[in-house]
Design goal:
Helix content: over 70%
Order of helices and strands: HHHHHHHHHH
Radius of gyration: 17 Å
Structural class: mainly alpha
Number of strands: 0
Length: about 210
């Protein structure tokens, strides 16, 4: 009897917290640079493990795009798995989304020093959008803003900050479901907080442009 009681709790914890975190924590950028250069990417360039710094450190837009795609996919997979194994539970899906991003930002595999979470955020939002379609339009708007600001300025950080603000404000004003609204606000704040050093460098004119 106790097994039947514990099983749904264990399933919830596994697919809404544990697995999303562990998937999100896979440091693809760190692994790639270790394999190609034998160095810790966190000691190179901006110190970030994401696609932008990978492209800069390896001087390769291709490898930057590969890491971008992989970081998106891990967030997407985490959310889709939560929706598949805990169907109809919005809290499980939202938890999976947040913990996948936390995993990328604080990865257990490399001492909790990770990336900014932008690509993984895109992945989890794509995943949540398959269950809550009205979120897709906010994500699409954020991505369009990302492209516009990136093309106008050449700064990935400005583009990412604009996308985070679009998510933050869009969730507040255009999402009716309270749980999804809270998720969007949390993700927006996380991404903005992780860009605090970029904001400082932008204000001081020290931020570097990178082509992806």
């Amino acid at each position: 009897m106790w097994v039947e009681t514990i099983k749904p709790i264990a399933t919830w914890v596994l697919f809404s917290v544990g697995l999303p975190y562990l998937l999100g924590a896979v440091p693809f950028g760190y692994i790639l640079v270790r394999l190609k250069l034998g160095k810790d990417i966190r000691e190179l360039g901006s110190g970030n493990i994401g696609a932008t710094n990978v492209a800069r450190v390896l001087n390769s837009r291709l490898w930057g795009r590969v890491i971008l795609l992989l970081d998106i996919l891990k967030g997407l997979i985490a959310v889709v798995l939560a929706g598949r194994f805990i169907p109809g539970n919005s809290l499980a899906i939202i938890s999976a989304a947040v913990f996948a991003i936390i995993g990328h930002i604080l990865p257990i595999y490399i001492g909790f020093r990770g990336g900014k979470g932008v690509a993984t955020a895109i992945g989890v939002l794509l995943g949540v959008s398959t269950f809550y379609h009205n979120l897709f339009f906010i994500l699409a708007s954020g991505l369009i803003l990302w492209l516009i600001f990136y093309q106008l300025t050449g700064f990935v950080s400005i583009a990412s900050i604009s996308m985070a603000l679009a998510l933050f404000l869009g969730s507040i004003f255009f999402i009716e479901d309270l749980a999804i609204k809270i998720m969007g606000v949390i993700i927006g704040i996380l991404v903005l907080y992780r860009h605090r050093e970029n904001i400082r460098r932008l204000l001081q004119g020290e931020e570097k442009k990178t082509r992806l």
